[in-house]
Amino acid sequence: MSVATAESKTTAKPLPERVRDYLAELGKRTGGDIRSDSFSRVLYSTDASIYQVMPLAVVFPRDVEELQAGVELAAKHGVPILPRTGGSSLAGQAVNEAVVFDLTRHLNRLLEVNTDEKWARVEPGMVLDPLNLQLKQYGLQFGPDPASSNRAAIGGIIGNNCTGSHSIVYGMAADHVLETGVFLSDGSRAHFGPLENGSLTAKTQLNGLEGKIYRELASLVESPKNRAVIRDNTPKHWRRCGGYNLDRLVPGSASYMRPQDPRFNLAKLLCGSEGTLGVMHEIKVNLVNVPERSTIAVIHFDQLYAALSAVPTILETQPTAIELLDQMAMKLCRGVREFARPLSNFVEGSPNCVLMTEFTGTSDEELADKVERLRAHLKSQGVPATAVTEAKSLSQQADVWTVRKAGLGLLMSMKGDYKPLPFIEDAAVPVEHLADYVTQIEEFCQGLGSQVAYYAHASAGCLHIRPLLNVKQAVEVAKLPAISDFSVKLLKGYGGALSSEHGDGRSRSWQNEKFYGPELYGLYRRVKQIFDPHNLLNPGDIVDAPPMTDHLRYGAEYHVHVEPDHVDFSEDQGFHRAVEMCNGAGICRKTTGGTMCPSFMVTQEEEHSTRGRANLLRAGLSGLLPTESLTSDRMYEALDLCIECKACKSECPSSVDMAKIKFEFLARYYEKNGVPLRARMMAGIARASRICSGPLAPVVNGIAGNGLVRTMLEKMLGISRQRQLPRFASEPFTTWFKHRGPQRATGNQVVLFNDTWNTYNYPEVSIAATEVLEAAGFDVLLPGHFCCGRPMISKGMVNQARRAARDCVEKLAPFAEQGIPIVGLEPSCLLTLRDELFELLPDEPRTAKIAEHSLLFEEFIAKLASEGTLDLKVQQAVGKVLLHGHCHQKALVGTGPSKQALAAVGAEVEEVDSGCCGMAGSFGYEAEHFDVSLAMGERRLLPAVRAAGVDTTIVAAGVSCRQQIKHGTGRSALHPAEALHGALFPKR
Fold first, then answer.
1. Which sign, positive or negative, has the C-alpha torsion 528, 530, 531, 536?
2. 988, pLDDT greater than 70
3. What sequence ranges are listed for the domain FAD-binding PCMH-type (predicted)?
């Protein structure tokens, strides 16, 4: 399919008249946020699956009444609708040609907690991790723990009947749902909960759709013939979320007798219905106690078959979880800094795979005994484990779960068009058959010429198997149904479940009649007809599904518009493939920790997530949006709030590098639309700083501080008058360095990569660093470079950045070739030498040597401390320190060296999980970004600084971070070099 043809089938297609009428009436009735433009529709056209379907529109109901109006009017106009939360669905149930209701924006509250009875009432858009953080104060949590818990919301978790790593303890989500408030397909309101003592009879006598549902459903499940079909044909494996949960309404079925299941509760049926039976607006869930203590034994194996065969034996020791990490996932993990470090803390050597086996208890002694019994049991049963390591501390266990939860994204970080795809990954079999099932699937796929990857819940017989396929090729697309058919055949033989936590969706709904048989499938179809007679709720899901190869995100007809890249994307195999690295998992939507994605954390807009930006760019590249949209103002708006923090480079397991992608985008955008004056000025800050500092500094500072001038700058250039502009130094660092005279030579040399800010605006930082380095026994040299190129990179000015990069290479290469360390103070500048230098000068052989010898100041000090060669005469311990890490520093290095360097001079360091400060170079100075910039800082950093005692030193390596802290709190933050300097030369 050509690009033009693709456009004609998407953006050029007008909305049906009934949809336009629906949206118009809904807007009049609610005044809500309703979007039907192409960009908004593209943003909600994907989830974490292999599918892409353009929705009809997107609605953001502000309250329950607006949601009800949306459902009611949809019935009136005959418009299909799809309730959606985080969009992390792996089977494609969160995309459809329907009006999407995003429930995460406003319907996201914890309504009530009953600690005595251990339950909570929540709205469907409440994300699980924030919910559990609120419940933690009561010692409670929601039991099921899907790996997507930092962005998956309760509505999606219940709608999918999710579970997670601890499913052998907590079962499925349906085991914890007590009641639901729901809007039925006609917009009427119903409340589903346990019915006992004749109350079902009363329900069947109600008027309207609710009464009809109770009458017809009760009749359906009370039929002896139907009961037999349900009992006999529902998979016996307890870990099942596929089809509809009719078995939970029938006495004598495996799941019916669970103590959480009263006799007749339609809330249980709504679980796993994937938005096809009703739209939930409130959910009452059971809560469990947070385990007092836990430990994780990591069992190493040289063969996957041996590991899987050992699972039944391990289960005999009663663990709470057994998770598998295979060789491929570990290899990918070692290639991502954010995950390589935690992996090294619990994996020894290079095993083929490991089983991460958790135990809980009430004391350390109890846990130690359980692990020792595990070791003894493995030995007595002849299990060929090669090693057993243990993660005892909370930080060690956090490392294990960090790597485990990143498994999906890590697998998707493979470069190129072959990807490990989810479509049979959710199968579960009895654990005694797990090894054989996996072996047969692997052999079948290899017979087709395809490798497979694995991860996940070995304890429940659910091993997420992902064949590596290139579905941009027709021959590979044909493998999808072939592999699925083979899996279904095996599962029926082994008594397994087709869907065990990820749901049916577009991946598996088409197999439901074959898997469950025509009789049970017929009952499922009848359930759908009872609840949704006009087929308006997520149609085509669970029953009456289209073929699995319809609406693939990539397919044989997928093509991209390719232009020459301005920046080197050869490692990604081109700019378009760098964009395609995003698989839609949506980790960039998390808000409870880390840095990615700062703008989404503030705005909660999908287009301000890394996933949203990647979706829009891919749509422009592939023709889903017109090709000219790639350099349009609307695309610029979507990327404008990307502050190029690089957090996605490390925190996204798929390593989507949106900072680099934006660099390329800006180059293309400015090439077509011209470079604004403000961007040119910001990019040329190094030259301007040289001119304005020194003798001219008092004059320039006076002018820049004038209120009238600041108002003019805001009106003419968009530089916020609410910001205090950095002052230029009357004596730049380079002048001080030159005039201070010769120093006693030690023979140990270090190059101080003096950046623009700490040379011309804050020379005291460079002076402090120089004197600390000299105190450590080094002769300090200056390279004499012009600029690292970072300001030009931020503004997409590739040619200017490349010239600056070449200058850096010429100045720094002679030092690097002599093995002289190159030490930098500003993270964004120094780390340019270890990152963008390769992208700007891919054919320059000397860049690797420069990168090898380039270190942040704190890295250099920490390295000396680790080697035992740091000899600093501390005169006054630093004391309490509140540390904030720079975004680039956290993404590429981590804050460990900062803590180690500060500890070397007696600092008691507390690091704030602050995310991004929000200043981000010039971003926070730009008038249109001022409010967003401060909002980013106010999330965690600025409140933490205000709460810090006066005896606490605030430390931040980034100049932008220090500026934001000063502007937002009035407190001054020190660079780590200044903190060390104060310990060596106190108030001299």
1. positive
2. no
3. 51-290
Sign of CA dihedral 368, 370, 373, 377: negative
321, 166 in Cβ contact below 8 A?
yes
Q: How far apart are CA 79 and CA 65, in angstroms?
A: 19
Alpha-carbon distance of 316 to 569, in angstroms, equals 50
Q: From CA 139, how far away is CA 244, in angstroms rounded?
A: 33
Question: What CATH number is attached to the domain comprising 338?
Answer: 3.30.70.2190
CA-based nearest residue to 824, from 812, 810, 814 = 812
* Residues 906 and 965 reside in one and the same domain: yes
How many residues are listed for the chain in this entry?
A: 988
- Tokens 């329900």 map to which residue? 203
Span 577-599, average pLDDT: 95
The SS3 assignment for 607 reads helix
Judge contact between 247 and 520, C-beta under 8 A.
no
Helix (H), strand (E) at residue 616: helix 610-622
What is the b/e burial string over 488-526, where b = at least 16 CB atoms within 10 angstroms of the residue's CB? bebbeebebbbbbbbbbbbbbbbbbbebbeeebbebbbb
Is 959 part of a structural domain of the chain? yes
Q: How far are the Cα atoms of 305, 312, 404 from residue 322, in angstroms, in the given order?
A: 15, 10, 11
Assess contact for 771 and 736: CB atoms under 8 A.
no
Strand partners, 56: none
Give yes or no for a contact between 347 and 298, defined as CB atoms under 8 angstroms apart.
yes
Tally of structural domains, the chain: 4
CA 454 to chain centre: 20
Kind of pairing between the strands at 140-141 and 288-289: antiparallel
User: Using CA atoms, how far apart are residues 549 and 486, in angstroms rounded to an integer?
Assistant: 16
Is residue 120 within a helix (H) or strand (E), and if so which, with residue range? Answer: strand 119-122
The Cα–Cα gap between 323 and 185 comes to 39
* Three-state secondary-structure class, residue 639: helix
The answer to whether residues 297 and 431 belong to one domain is: yes
Token duo for residue 202? 């009363």
- With CA atoms as reference, report the closest residue to 616 among 22, 39, 11, 1: 39
CA dist 928 and 941 (Å) reads: 21
Give the pLDDT confidence score for residue 364 in this predicted structure: 95
DSSP string, 661-675: HHHHHHHHHHHHH--
What is d(CA 609, CA 934) in angstroms, rounded to the nearest whole number?
18
Task: Confirm if 626 and 634 have CB atoms less than 8 A apart.
Answer: no
Please tell me the distance from the alpha carbon of residue 437 to that of residue 439, in angstroms, as a whole number: 5
Tell me whether the omega of the peptide bond preceding residue 597 falls within 30 degrees of 0, making it cis. yes
Amino acid at 147: A
The rounded radius of gyration (Å) of the Cα atoms in the chain is 30
Cβ atoms of 110 and 149 closer than 8 Å: no
579 closest CA partner among 605, 624, 610, 625: 610
Contact call for residues 434 and 311 (beta carbons, < 8 A): yes
Integer angstrom CA distances of residue 323 from 238, 350, 651? 18, 18, 21
Do the beta carbons of residue 546 and residue 510 sit within 8 Å? yes
**Are 456 and 342 in a shared domain?**
yes
Cite the beta strand spans of 333-402 per DSSP E. Answer: 353-361, 387-391
How far is residue 881's CA from residue 952's CA, in Å, rounded to a whole number?
5
- Say if residue 2's pLDDT is above 70: no
Angle between helices 633-640 and 610-622 (to 10 degrees): 160
Question: What is the span of the domain harbouring residue 119?
Answer: 110-289
Residues 225 and 373 in one domain: no
pTM of the entire predicted model:
0.94
Residue the block writes with tokens 């020791």 = 317
Give dist(CA 25, CA 543) in Å, integer: 30
Q: What is the mean pLDDT of the chain?
A: 94
Determine the Cα angle at 127 with ends 125 and 131, to 5°: 115
**First vs last C-alpha separation in the chain:** 73
Q: What is the pLDDT of residue 141?
A: 98
Residue 495 pLDDT > 60, yes or no? yes
